[in-house]
Specification:
By secondary structure, this protein is an alpha+beta fold. The strands form two sheets. A two-stranded antiparallel sheet has the order 1-2. A two-stranded antiparallel ribbon has the order 3-4.
Length: 149
């Protein structure tokens, strides 16, 4: 069967039988009530399988590689009404005992701590505990003096 197409300018074009057959097939496929649903379901299943293959094995590969489980510590701040030990965090106890060996506070001034965590007197007392190298004396030895002076 041949189907005639009329363009907007008024020229009539005759379609080949192959084209008309394709047009009929696409019309019949569009009328199928299960065509869109099955394709959508197939896409969701494919996406789910892809996600499982991509991300489902990451954690298990890490566990098998190291053979370690994450330790569970009884942290005192894990409860609903619990909180951090504010007095130790204000004293910089964690920083002084753990972090200071690798990470310096050379870019943080003690005056920046005033108002947020400390009063001016507390910041001065904290700075007085720190000893810095002032430079060599007459004998050529480095002189250590408190930071607050």
């Amino acid at each position: 069967m041949e189907v005639a197409f009329i363009m907007e300018i008024g020229i009539e074009i005759q379609a080949t039988p192959k084209l008309s057959t394709l047009i009929k097939r696409s019309d019949q496929e569009a009328e199928s009530p299960f065509r869109g649903k099955s394709l959508r379901a197939f896409a969701f299943v494919g996406a789910g399988v892809s996600w499982l293959l991509a991300f489902g094995t990451v954690a298990s590969a890490d566990e098998f590689e190291h053979g370690l489980e994450c330790p569970s510590y009884p942290w005192p701040h894990q409860g609903i009404l619990s909180s951090y030990d504010h007095s130790s965090s204000r004293r910089h106890q964690v920083y002084q005992q753990v972090c200071a060996s690798c990470h310096s506070m050379s870019l943080v001034a003690y005056r920046d701590l005033v108002g947020g965590a400390y009063t001016e007197e507390e910041a001065k007392a904290l700075a007085a505990e720190i000893e810095v190298v002032d430079g060599p004396n007459e004998e050529g030895r480095n002189v250590h003096s408190p930071l607050g002076n």
